[in-house]
Amino acid sequence: xxxxxxxxxxxxxxxxxxxxxxxxxxxxxxxxxxxxxxxxxxxxxxxxxxxxxxxxxxxxxxxxxxxxxxxxxxxxxxxxxxxxxxxxxxxxxxxxxxxxxxxxxxxxxxxxxxxxxxxxxxxxxxxxxxxxxxxxxxxxxxxxxxxxxxxxxxxxxxxxxxxxxxxxxxxxxxxxxxxxxxxxxxxxxxxxxxxxxxxxxxxxxxxxxxxxxxxxxxxxxxxxxxxxxxxxxxxxxxxxxxxxxxxxxxxxxxxxxxxxxxxxxxxxxxxxxxxxxxxxxxxxxxxxxxxxxxxxxxxxxxxxxxxxxxxxxxxxxxxxxxxxxxxxxxxxxxxxxxxxxxxxxxxxxxxxxxxxxxxxxxxxxxxxxxxxxxxxxxxxxxxxxxxxxxxxxxxxxxxxxxxxxxxxxxxxxxxxxxxxxxxxxxxxxxxxxxxxxxxxxxxxxxxxxxxxxxxxxxxxxxxxxxxxxxxxxxxxxxxxxxxxxxxxxxxxxxxxxxxxxxxxxxxxxxxxxxxxxxxxxxxxxxxxxxxxxxxxxxxxxxxxxxxxxxxxxxxxxxxxxxxxxxx
Length: 567
Fold this sequence. Notes:
Number of helices: 4
Radius of gyration: 41 Å
Helix content: 10-25%
Largest sheet: 4 strands, antiparallel
Strand content: 25-35%
Oligomer: single chain
Distance between the termini: 167 Å
């Protein structure tokens, strides 16, 4: 069927009709020369004028209006049958086909097309048009310099701009991403602020693919890795909301506010379970809560972040880390700069917090284990990013330099064990590649002129989404050198981590020895004055004894003299 588009417009909208005819040249105006104007000018002789062979060009810029597109679907049904034939009836359609196949016109058409088809098939058999040459050569992306380019920018469609505070990628592919929008600055929310968050299509930055309507602004959002239609969001009022994108923009279920967090819910992670419906959350109220999204009236378990073991919250949670290969272990990053290593299946609540790692001067905004080496984990806080080993609790094994601006987020590359990313308050995205250099970032990219609040990398390792303070989400594509594992990289990183861990252990043991020596020295110095005091008392007693002995001897001598004088 031929598709024809007809555009109509009234004749009066075209303006006055132009009539063109061929005619000789004619003079329309004749202006006579004014001799009096000659006195106002000076003759220049000779007259020099510079010319160029290239034509003069002018450059103009035009900002076109944004064009919004929508995806529409078409349902094709079987058609083309005569009116007296019912396509649903198999006998009628078979009878009609046999009738058409006996028609002479049909037979002639098939014979003509058959020869052309046979010729084309023979050509394809002679030459493989889909043959791939040099298929055995492996592409080497190591020689390519690290780089990243902007693919799309997703802007908050509301007039009152909010911050993009958390991002979650669609589990099945890189076609969608969910973004949580909120204003986290205390009492800085403008009146009438929109509470919506959005799901964006990567290829359609002009309009959100779906709108999520929570009862309070979302602070974090997370897709269910087992069901891409389900996602949960942590709200500013501490409640946890659950959405099914097949059932609309409103949440399916929301946790009871009396059993939820009392502070903003900063992080939520799905757990590895048979049902795929369990998750756990944390907040600055000092609690870690476990939930089942099928029944969100109350949490299934609760953990109080208390390292003093007094039963009261002493630390506030900001970030979480969970590794599916270690289902009973998890980690919590706190706003006091301490990272807690916990065991969910401990015998008593006091034994759930196994160890703590202290090294930051402010909140731990990002916490993640290395996907290839789960014993090593990354923390981001204050002005540095640190890499830790579970075997060492006193200090980190590696760390970045102190930046001039505050760090806000960070994550490991899912495909390269030596690469991690950090975002800064000045709008820069830093890419660290420890195979290339360790003192400075391999690539620093100025994404925007405002603070970057969050970042999230897609599982393929080639796409990175960064959320800014004004609600803009920038989608970046990383070069092959950053998204493909290099030769022998895993072995090299293993050696680096083992070497640095061994070095820190030696330094730690040396530090302990020096500490013991200083303690012993201080104890000796404390004992020395006591010994001096004891010696002084003994000397005084001995001197006193000698004095009285001398006095007695003098008395005896005087008495003897008096007796001798009397005789």
